[in-house]
Design goal:
41% of the residues lie in helices and 19% in strands. The chain is of the alpha/beta class and 805 residues long. Helix 3 crosses helix 4, helix 8 packs across helix 9 and helix 9 packs across helix 22. A five-stranded mixed beta barrel has the order 4-8-9-11-10. It folds into five domains: 107 residues, mini-chromosome maintenance (MCM) complex, chain A, domain 1 (2-Layer Sandwich), CATH 3.30.1640; 160 residues, OB fold (Dihydrolipoamide Acetyltransferase, E2P) (Beta Barrel); 278 residues, P-loop containing nucleotide triphosphate hydrolases (Rossmann fold), CATH 3.40.50.300; 76 residues, no CATH class; 104 residues, Orthogonal Bundle (Arc Repressor Mutant, subunit A), CATH 1.10.10. It is found in: Nucleus.
Length: 805
Amino acid sequence: MNEDISNNDNQAAIREFQRDYLDFLDDEQASGKYYERTKAMIEDRERRLIVNINDLRKKNPVRCAGLLNNCFTELLAFQRAVKEYAANIDPTYAREFEEFFIGFEGNFGSKHVTPRTLTSCFLGNLICVEGIVSKCSLSKLKIVRSVHYCPATGKFLERKYTDLTSAEGLPTSSVYPTKDDDGNLLETEYGLSSYKDHQTLTIQEMPERAPAGQLPRSVDIICDNDLVDLAKPGDRIRVIGCYRCLPGKYGGFTSGIFRTVVIANSITPLTAESELTISREDMNKFKKLSKRKDVFELLSKSLAPSIHGHDFVKKAVLCLLLGGAEKVLPNGTRLRGDINVLLVGDPGVAKSQMLRFVLQTAPRAIPTTGRGSSGVGLTAAVTTDPETGERRLEAGAMVLADRGVVCIDEFDKMSDMDRTAIHEVMEQGKVTISKAGIHARLNARCSVLAAANPVYGKYDQYKTPMENIGLQDSLLSRFDLLFVLLDIVDTEDDKRISDHVVRMHRYRNPTEQDGDVIPMNTGADLLSSLDSNDDGGDGSIFEKYNPLLHGGSRSKKDQILNMNFIKKYIVMCKSMKPPVLSEEASQLISEEYSRLRSQDTLNSDVARTQPITARTLETLIRLSTARAKARFSRTVNAEDAATAIELVQYAIFRKVLDKKDKKKRHRNEEDEDVEADDDGTEEIEQRQKRQRSAQASVDDAFESIASQEEPPPTLAELREQSRMTRQKTASGTPVEVSKEKLKAFKDAIAKAFFSTGEQSMPLRDILSFIKTECSPMTQEEIDFCFKDLSDQNHIMLSDDTVFLI
């Protein structure tokens, strides 16, 4: 009896709430805002009306407070009011659907929380929670109403199902009817039954907001009907819904620990740029700074000013933060605009410190390490839900960093199998999963900033960069820039670095109290020389001069931008329309790419750090576009292209020292009194050994002619030379050709064949090429050089045609 009275009172309260909400929606005579929204909902054949809670707070604060604190009862009344209001506008449409829904937006004040601050005091409240989707279940059908037919009696039986996630009524039994009250069998009429879509998400607090050293908190989200498949792993979303606990029983007993979920009624995607507030005053500062001629150099100098040197690396990091221009062709092909950078070098050259600064500067950045990451941990994994046993898709670091930066430290410590897993991500910007019956493609459009140590622990300058790096060409070609950072012993540089490090240890943040421990998540802020007193109150965008932090040798006129301004400036650059390549920039980039492809490094002491492929051409375009973005320019000019070329030239080519110099230096240090004839004998042996090694390593006949030194003459060759000398002396026309002329002749022959790519050329073409490339030579000298090359089996002269052997 008491339960019936309580139920009647509850229904009466719901009807009263329904009238209040109906008065709120019926604003046709006033602003007509929700009248238009309801009409648009009917025209689009949708069932969810979006309501701004600020409007409800102004018109009916009592109902707004009740909705925030007792959302289930109030939400049921609000949904019934929406259906009644839709029936007043279009009765036919309202009869088609049994239930209408409400979605909310606006300001939630203290109810706006994160997964970490979501506590038990919010149970039963309407809350707004933000996070990043880490897990996502498959979409399933959930039965709402089943219809059964009894052949024996010819009657139909209908049954509705509700649970704790439903706002309508109390939870019902989960028993599915198979017989009626008289024991007659029932047949399910599937066509008359009703179902709804159901999905479970798990959102995790954003990595940049999580305290250092603590595990990130998560919360489960229940999505029904039209909210299904609105988010995927890696998306950053804002969820508004009712916070509720779901009791669980095991064998009739409970542990007292209940599962808590958020029953969503609105899901809104977030962007990293929305987290920063840019005012009109900031825009004026941006425009003023972008007009400076040295804006790119100023921005790069302001990145991690506490790190000594590495000017080119800082420029590359600035380009990485700005990004290039992403393009999607009509056939669906995506040309990535993300810039990838790899830092390889000796220990203690500030590689990891550069990564930490990017983590604090980039709007969205995910840190990871090579040893602590697996291939699926970086991309995506298929896991099993321990409660339901169903398969779920769990996002990895690169998916979570979509439209951001992934910082991978100790990149060389990863296994080859794990490194292979990120090939697709670095070029295509997507992760393709085909495991356990799940086929999906997730967005992972992120830049990669990786740091690695050389193969031997310390960079060996007497080996080529490829031997020092030890990574596959297929992976290296996906990095736009590869920098080799060396710890070179230099007295002056070492003195400056030591002074700099000592000053950093003496410097203390003005807000730091005596005895306080420096928080882990602000370490990079201190290293970026961000002055806490410079809060922008005076309107200055530059940091105040501090002799301990900046050093006494730095001029007070030198300007360094503060970190907050750099963050906003980068966000503004990325949000603008990408610049377009100009004609002169396109021509300059095209010429430089051809020069890089054809540039010969075998004849010099310079070697490449990575292969030159068509991706290098795209690298030049991306770097040029990034520099143009820093100027707020709509076009990429020749100066932007020249800066990109300078970066690529610095990163690609690395000098390789000759081992002869190393051995001679060691030999001189060990024994300076070695006799001259012994030195001569050892030097000849070393030269012969070096020549044999060089001859074995050269595969190209073109380069063989230009780079091979003359081997020591054999006995047969000496006899032949003596015979030729006697013939020339007898004829009275001796010919003498210097070694310089002979080498120039060989280089000209090699260049002629290399330019045409043919194995044979007419003699007249060769002669005309020699006249343009070499100093004037007589016919006797030319004949002598042809004879010398023919004797060495480099060329063959027959019927006025020169053949390359």
